[in-house]
Amino acid sequence: MRRLIAVLALGVSAPALAQSAGPAQTQLDDLAGKLGYRFTIIDNNPVDCPGNAGGCFISEIAITTPAELPRALATAPIELRYSYVARVLSAESDTFENRLINGDLNALSLKPGKTLRPATTYRIRLTGTGHFFSTYYPMPNAHLMLPGLQGRVIAASRPAIDPETGLEYLPFVAPMTDEAELATAAPDDRTRWRTPERAFAINTERGVGGEPAHAILPAPRSVKPGDGAPVDLTRGVDLRLTGLTREAVAPALDALALGTGNVPLTIGIDRALGAEGYRLTVKDNAVAIVAGDAAGASHALRSLAQQAAYTKGRVAPMTVEDAPRFGFRGLHIDFARNFHSKALLLKLIEQMAVFKLNTLHLHLGDDEGWRMEIKALPELTEIGAFRCFDASETRCLQPQLGADPDPEAPVNGFLSQADYLELLAAAKARHIEVIPSFDMPGHSRAAIRAMEVRHERLTAAGKPAEAARYRLVEPADTTEYRSIQNYDDNTLNVCIDSTYRFLDTMIDEVAALHRQAGLPLKTYHIGADETAGAWGESPACKAMMAKTGLKPAELGAHFIERVSNDLAKKGIAAAGWSDGMGHTKPENMPKGVQTNIWGGLFGGGVAEAHNQANRGWKTVISIPDIAYLDMPYAPHPMERGYDWAAREVEPFETFAFMPENLPANAAVALDIKARPGKLADSAPLQPGRGMAGMQAQLWSETIRSDDQVEYMFFPRLMALAERAWHRADWEPPYVAGATYAHGDARVDRAAILADWRDFTARAAAQLPALDKADIAYRLAPPGARIADGRLEANTELPGIAIEYRVGEGAWQRYTAPVAVSGPVTLRTRSPDGKRASRSVKVEP
Predict the structure, then answer these.
(1) N or C: less crowded end of the chain, CB within 10 Å?
(2) What single-letter DSSP state applies at residue 642?
(3) Cα–Cα dist 664/672, whole Å
């Protein structure tokens, strides 16, 4: 579920340094501004990998010195640091050597006796684990470090903004053009880049909808058209409420954006309709809503608003009967790896309400950052919320994941308690639960470093007992490990009392904020995943194991069990990622546990989900193949996102997912190598057991701006909302023990495609509202081909404008096949005309 990265450095021997007069800050600044920096992905299919690694790729960093290079810099121990999304297996260079600092931070340094020459390009050939399938994998903001001077980011390594799309790109990364060498990492991988020609074929096969019967998304259980004239809501409404206050539905009423008028709009409560259920009736120049609760009434108003926007305020008579498929419909966003703004969260909370999602999972603490103010422990944000040039990490954390080390950069920062209260208020008003998460016991480096700074400060002040009170590591623990993200110090010690004292203090403060906001903390997400072989040499853990009989491999589960029971005593349910949760003993866990299933669909996720549901746990489908929205939309080097779990997570795949019959997904889904597979129900669900809901995830390792968050979420979040709310007729019922293979006739592909076309029509109807809300959703590039001298083009969603130009000519609107000569560049454009997709090119 997580990943890796690295850094560079330029160093020199002590004798050479002694001959130097010592560089000045202005000289280092000038070098950072002029140094050339280029990253090239050379081969994802090397014949041999160093150290018999299971898979590797070859890349190159080229550094070009300026024509004028002061002698003081040529012989100075400069470090050039860079992030690298892999573990470096080898670095080949006559001039430089590479070393891992920690996590994704590596350093290149000059070999002994080497100096820098002016106007020279140095090439460092790096072989790393895994692969780089995207030009967005390399990390920006490589920087120069020199003892005694302030570090500086290399200007050539900074990201830039594309004026057409409004999105970040990395100008220092060389284009990827060789599909044979770069598209796959294994001979059996059938993945192919999503070229315009291939997109054209896919769009043609799937099709798009025309005029939708209604514009409500997610689809209601039932929509029955009525007779009579449309109700003209532009004349305003006469609001009449029974059994609830206006405050309970205020955001939904505001979204409806209707003034006071003479169209009756009645809203009442009937508990028999169930939680979040509603009935919406439009007829006889009036609108009536009856709902099971205030959340259901809000959902009804959102449906009415969508339909009214589509029909320009004149709503045809209809009766909508609706209720959610799942009680848990979640959105998870990672604020820890890279920080995002409060304004973005407020926008997302509103869009969650629009599409009837009801749970916000905030990931606020990880290795790379701690993003929420805890007043009892101010170092958590003073140190853990910022990256800067401080090797001692006593003022901030060292840069990771290509973060801009400027404290004012958007990727740095935290939510104050006032911010968090504002977010809770917005969520409460929209009937959305908030689940905070600070990942532990692994993924805890930001907290560990912050508490070490606290320890050092109080020790220096002569307060050793207070200094030790919240320490998260044991000084005598000599265990050596590397996490999957390459950290050797990111796991807190689960055998010392101060760890649990820290947790209690932090959770009590967060719970108090929830009480203050009137939105009680019902669930806390422990994280509990990817703990990398820690504690084996911890004296405290050895003593605990001697006393309890626990083995080293059981210590992580012990932590989860203890914290879960401590939370239960506070009236808070524990949640965690399925890998860690699965290692616990059910008899040691409290009731009401939530588990997020993130095992791969073809990688054991089906059995994992069924086994944990059979424990009686609240099982939330978070499978990365369809629900990790930080994965790329399509396999193409110009698509952003990690792809360790899936080369593509496009709206169709999420739409076609069957959450209550996991094995059946083999009938339509392909594995990570684009191969058809088979899914056997090796761990059948017990009677009465099932999935509790679905959650979309966005991890922020490669997501550095608010616009990128919106781009990765939308429009595919709409597809996930559709499946979480609405069970499609084409989903076959679950049969215990059944096995499915690709193309299985029990899953009707024709029915899926018919429903998909209806969904595309309703999704396209939402785009003007997303434009108005300033959501930077992804515009899929058009599919296109040139056949017999004529350009043909199509789109993923209906009604999206296509523009094209021949050669370097003027952009034109595409409306129908047209005769062309020479290469043609195409793009799509948003309904409001303000944004374009990335451009694609077709050749005759």
Answers:
(1) C
(2) -
(3) 17
The token pair at 136 is 């967005």
Whole-number Å distance between alpha carbons of 310 and 322? 19
The rounded distance, in Å, linking the Cα atoms of 478 and 489 is 11
Model confidence at 354: pLDDT above 70 = yes
Point out which residues pair with 595 in neighbouring strands.
576, 619
Looking at residue 478, the DSSP 8-state letter turns out to be -
Chain CA centroid to CA 45, Å? 28
Strands 56-64 and 96-102: unpaired
Positive or negative: CA dihedral 811, 817, 822, 828 = positive
> What is the average pLDDT value for the chain, to the nearest integer?
95
CA angle centred on 119, ends 116 and 124, rounded to 5°: 60
Contact 363, 336 (CB under 8 A): yes
Q: Would you state the torsion angle of the CA atoms of residues 181, 183, 186, 190, taken in this order, to the nearest 10 degrees?
A: -130
pLDDT at residue 793 is higher than 60 = yes
pLDDT for the residue numbered 12: 36
Task: State pTM to two decimals.
Answer: 0.95
Which residues are catalytically annotated? 530
495: left (phi over 0), alpha (psi -120 to 50) or beta: alpha
The answer to whether the beta carbons of residues 489 and 448 sit under 8 Å apart is yes
What does the alpha-carbon distance between residue 50 and residue 58 come to, in Å, rounded to a whole number? 11
The pLDDT of 453-473, averaged and rounded, is 98
For the chain, the maximum distance between any two Cα atoms, rounded to a whole number of angstroms, is 93
Rounded Cα distance, 340 and 699, in Å: 12
Residue 439 has phi, psi (to 5 degrees) of -60, 130
Q: How far is CA 270 from CA 246, 249, 276, 292, 297, in A?
A: 17, 16, 11, 5, 10
CB 570 within 8 A of CB 564: no
| pLDDT tens, position by position, 83-108 | 998 999 999 999 999 999 999 999 99
Structural domains in the chain? 14-182 (2.60.40.290), 222-322 (3.30.379.10), 328-754 (3.20.20.80), 783-842 (2.60.40.10)
pLDDT of res. 51? 80
Nearest to 110 by CA among 125, 126, 100, 122: 122
Q: Which helix (H) or strand (E) holds 345?
A: helix 342-354
Residue 3: pLDDT band (50, 70, 90) is very low
What mean pLDDT do residues 265-293 have? 98
Residues 732 and 639 sit within 8 Å (Cβ to Cβ) = no
